[in-house]
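go over my protein:
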Amino acid sequence: LSMTFGRYWAYSWWIYHGLYALAFPILFGAWFLEIRRAGTVRALAEALSMRDAVAQLSRGYSKPIADLVEAIEWKDRYTHGHVRRVASYAVMIGKELGLPGSELRNLALGAQLHDVGKISVPDNILGKPSRLTPEEFEVIKQHVERGYEIAKSVKALDGAVDGIHLHHERWDGAGYPLGLAGEAIPLQARIVAVADAYDAMTSGRVYQPAVTDGAAFSEMERCRGTHFDPRCVDAFLTALRKARDEGEFPMVQTSLEHSHGAAA
């Protein structure tokens, strides 16, 4: 309105141009403060690029995919926010491994929808506070196949199928659903497995309390080469330590108090 109807002798003209000019020192001032706090320009560039990868993903959702993400979040109140955190962690790992932007986008999408198959899991099993029976665990395991079916039916999820279907495979071949091992497991699935396990440990579940970041670090290192791809674990720990050193992710290094990697 100021641009259309304002004249230089009117207050509206000066308000518009004054606010427009004020935006620049605010923007550059915020960048300066962030660079001074982190001590490096690289920290700002990495933060902006990682935020952009996840933000662009969210903005690019079709409504059905956005609805799926919301459905996953609300299916289990104990894991609310889990899939979005897993997506952020997965992008951190992917960036540390040097994946290009297109692969980061598919990785983030696969991470955010990795638990989509749990929509079909009965609430009394998903939210059970005690140990699952073998029969109940078999029902839980079916969520990856159900997620695969959903992903294959949505064209936009073609690049995210591996992360949704195979994130419970293990490096040593003891995972599910296919029992793949080592490099036979797609990289996207190996990355999501690491991000998923770390968030499960540090945020807690109905059946287990959260552990400290230091304890989670120790567990991830203990399971590298058995449960997880060593390269993905190393990339994640490197990325987290960089974030901690730059003040983005403060962590307390403590001894391992719980072993929950397998449960995750």
Q: What stands out?
A: The two ends are 55 Å apart (CA to CA).
